[in-house]
Design brief:
This protein is of the alpha/beta class and about 300 residues long. The chain contains 8 helices and 14 strands. The chain has a single domain, classed as 4-Layer Sandwich (Metallo-beta-lactamase, Chain A), CATH 3.60.15.10.
């Protein structure tokens, strides 16, 4: 192609592009893409030795924690600010499913949708994680507050987990506020109050940590030399209570006993490298502890692919 033809071709291409851009410039602006404003399903899965552990989120509460923590409001405000948090504090509600290979054990059941619109999604997340309520063999309840045992029953009082035996500290099982929720399991002879520390199924054992409630129970999960302690409500506000474990909360039935149990369990977990898992640590609510004087450094689990 000679230079004259090339010049004419270039001019023609430039004119075509100019016309195209001019046409595009006159087109009306497209509407902005709507925001989704939802998260992915709330489950997180990891291996603990030979056990598969799935953290299940039941939603969250927006809590005015400054009104509940047993310390001056200005100290709570400062602690939250240190971690770039504010009031009310979004607080996760978590449960934990352990697949031992022969048993499915669920620790806590969330609210059952009985505590407001921001919680009550545990069953949806259980389904997203690949399980059905009727597959659950054992349910271990840390204590009898509604955000831990509320998911045992439907709003009309039917058992959500028809094939499961429910384990709960004896003192908590006998409390009036728990009896209605536990009733369908008791009627089916599937209620097993815990009277002493001991094995629920191989690799899962109860550990009395009474204080937050009279029957508060933690559960020790152990497989192939790896250990996790599900601590229930031994901690509520990570940004405050890891830095100052002496701070208690008005939800505790016995503040001094609750603080003592937190100290006992946290020291044990730090000493042998156990994971802790808690209902109100931000989802997935699992991590390790390292002592720092009288405080604790919390190291959340690292996201990992299943292998």
């Amino acid at each position: 192609m000679n230079k004259r033809v090339m010049s004419q071709t270039t001019q023609a291409l430039a004119m075509a592009l100019a016309l195209s851009f001019g046409t595009l410039a006159t087109l009306p602006a497209q509407a902005a893409t709507p925001m989704v404003k939802t998260q992915a399903p709330g489950y997180y899965r990891m291996m603990l030795g030979g056990f598969e552990v799935t953290a299940l989120n039941d939603g969250f509460f927006d809590l005015p924690v400054d009104q509940y923590l047993k310390q001056p409001k200005e100290k709570t405000d400062a602690a939250l600010k240190k971690y770039f948090l504010s009031l009310p504090l979004e607080t996760s509600v978590n449960a934990f499913l352990i697949n031992t290979g022969s048993k499915l054990v669920l620790v806590d059941t969330g609210t059952g949708g009985k505590a407001g619109a921001t919680s009550g999604v545990l069953l949806a997340n259980l389904a997203a994680a690949g399980y059905k309520p009727e597959q659950i063999d054992e349910i271990c309840i840390t204590h009898n507050h509604g955000d831990h045992l509320g998911g045992l029953t439907t709003k009309d009082g039917r058992a959500v987990f028809p094939n499961a035996t429910v384990h709960i500290g004896k003192a908590d099982a006998e409390a009036a506020e728990a009896k209605a929720t536990l009733a369908p399991y008791a009627a089916a002879k599937k209620l097993a109050p815990i009277e002493a520390d001991g094995e629920i199924v191989p690799g899962v054992r109860a550990w009395a940590t009474h204080g937050h409630t009279p029957g508060h129970t933690s559960y020790v999960i152990e497989s192939q030399g790896q250990k996790m302690i599900v601590v229930g409500d031994l901690i509520h506000v990570a940004s405050v209570q890891f830095d100052d474990p002496s701070v208690t909360i008005s939800f505790d039935s016995d503040n001094s006993a609750a603080a003592a149990q937190r100290d006992k369990v946290f020291k044990a977990a730090a000493a042998d490298g156990s994971l802790i898992a808690a209902a109100h640590l931000q989802f997935p609510g699992m991590g390790h502890l390292r002592a720092d004087g009288k405080s604790w450094v919390y190291v959340p689990v690292n996201y990992t692919r299943m292998r």
